[in-house]
Design a protein that fits this description.
Blueprint lengths: L1 E9 L2 E8 L8 E9 L2 H9 L14 E9 L11 E4 L2 E2 L5 H4 L10 E2 L11 E4 L1 H6 L2 E3 L6 H4 L2 H12 L9 E4 L3 H12 L5 E5 L2 H9 L4 E4 L5 H8 L5 E4 L4 H10 L5 E4 L13 H6 L3 E4 L5 H10 L9 E6 L3 H7 L7 E5 L1
Parallel strand pairs: 10-11, 10-13, 11-12, 13-14, 14-15, 16-17
Antiparallel strand pairs: 1-2, 3-4, 3-8, 3-17, 4-5, 5-9, 6-7
Helix pairs in contact: 5-6, 5-11
């Protein structure tokens, strides 16, 4: 089985690439890729250069949907013609993390677009291990296939929220108005959040946040977040950092009410540190949570929730796969919220 796509060889070095894919196992599934999103991690690898964990050349892409074109002889529950989304990591389901329901932290997990070829390609092969553990989620009939490609974002946000003490009625601060911040906003409103304040710098995204139900969409290029919080007496129960900005992360921790939770969701560069006053942290009984990827359970739940959300409205740009390099550059523009590649 011959596959073709685009592979990253190094910093800003994306080239056409073809390879001999795996033969279809009895439990495997072959997809024709419908669309693939460019994730923030993909952008970092392209513009800053790939980190050591990437096996070069690497075909990026882990936010995608595909249409099944062939199933192995022992596959049950899936058939040709169905549209599915694919979870971002293939867990072994045997290690300590997996045995504790933390398959997103699998000690031997294979990350799509990092350790194995991703979906910036014409075809994607789902190995039997991934099929058997529930890594495929059927897309609800009538769902836009491009929007369904963002199931992974919803799943990761859902997983992050689950790490916290969130409950309906909570006041929430979201720092970052990109796709992740806007996905968190939609989920939290759907889950019954009370007042939600989202902060960022790009007006078009902030206006979109208002349309998604944000009570306040604050442009921090024009308004100081601390001053706003003091004037409004806004002390969130939950603060979510969806942008890798350390000073903003510190501010979020400071603004939390006593007993509140800080979710450090964004992908911080290796070696990032954040000083904070341990006295205030301890005596205010605040909680700090990390979050990475999603569990298979989160992914299946996200696929079910997708029709309740407006993820398709985040897609501002689509490019054919042949223009992948241009797509990466466009994804960094202020006009872009989410950029998709369409084979």
């Amino acid at each position: 089985m011959r596959q073709s796509g685009f592979a990253l060889y190094g910093k800003e070095d994306l080239r056409p690439y073809s390879w001999d894919g795996s033969e279809i196992e009895a439990g495997g599934v072959l997809l024709r890729v419908n669309s693939c999103g460019i994730c923030g991690s993909d952008l970092r690898m392209f513009f800053d250069g790939p980190s050591p964990r990437y096996r070069l050349p690497v075909v990026l892409g882990h936010e995608f949907t595909g249409t099944i074109i062939e199933v192995g002889s022992k596959v049950e529950g899936y058939q040709a013609g169905e549209v599915v989304a694919v979870a971002p990591l293939i867990p072994d389901m045997r290690c300590r993390a997996c045995s504790h329901g933390q398959d997103n932290l699998c000690e031997n997990g294979q990350v799509i677009g990092v350790h194995i070829p991703g979906a910036m390609a014409d075809l994607f092969y789902v190995p039997a291990q991934m099929v058997s553990v529930g890594g495929l989620a059927k897309v609800a009939a009538g769902t836009d296939v491009h929007a369904a490609g963002l199931t992974e974002i919803v799943a990761c946000c859902l997983h992050g929220i689950r790490q916290t003490e969130f409950e309906p009625g909570c006041k929430v601060l979201i720092i970052g108005e990109g796709p992740v911040g806007l996905a968190h906003l939609q989920l939290l409103k759907w889950m019954g959040a009370g007042e939600v304040v989202i902060s960022g710098l790009i007006e078009t995204r902030l206006r979109l946040a208002e349309e998604f139900g944000a009570d306040v969409a604050l442009n921090v290029g024009k308004h100081d977040l601390k001053k706003f919080a003091e004037e409004r007496r806004f002390r969130p129960d939950l603060a979510i950092v969806a942008a890798p900005v350390i000073p903003a992360s510190q501010t979020a921790l400071e603004l939390l009410r006593p007993g509140g939770s800080l979710l450090l969701f964004s992908g911080y560069p290796s070696g990032s540190t954040m000083p904070f006053d341990l006295y205030k942290f301890h005596y205010a009984e605040k909680h700090v949570h990390g979050s990475i990827d999603c569990t298979l359970q989160d992914f299946q739940r996200a696929a079910e929730l997708l029709p309740q959300l407006q993820m398709g409205r985040l897609i501002t740009h689509t490019f054919p796969l042949a223009e992948a390099s241009q797509a990466f550059r466009a994804a960094r523009s202020e006009a872009a919220v989410k950029t998709m590649l369409v084979p």
